[in-house]
Design goal:
By secondary structure, the protein is of the alpha+beta class. 15% of the residues lie in helices and 45% in strands. The protein is built from one helix and four strands. The protein has a four-stranded antiparallel β-sheet with strand order 1-2-3-4, with helices on one face. β1 and β2 (7-17) form a beta hairpin. The two termini are 24 Å apart.
């Protein structure tokens, strides 16, 4: 769990794979509900970096995802 734009959020992590091509990698995302706009958001980020360590990229991606705002003030 975490917070995005001051709202409680569920943090989701995993590995994705393509069914027909040799592609895959790590992903991270957040699901959150914004009561002000009455909308549910899922913010997703995926890493595709064959042969490279992904942890640094996942941390950077997580920082970017946490900058999300619903756009209502």
């Amino acid at each position: 769990e975490g917070t995005i734009d001051g709202q409680p959020a569920i943090h989701i992590r995993g590995i994705w794979a393509h069914q027909k091509e040799a592609k895959g990698g790590a992903f991270t995302g957040y699901a959150l509900y914004d009561p002000q706009t009455e909308r549910l958001f899922y913010i997703d980020g995926q890493i595709f970096a064959p042969g490279m360590k992904k942890l640094v990229y996942l941390r950077q991606l997580d920082i970017v995802l946490k900058t999300f705002t619903a756009g209502v003030e």
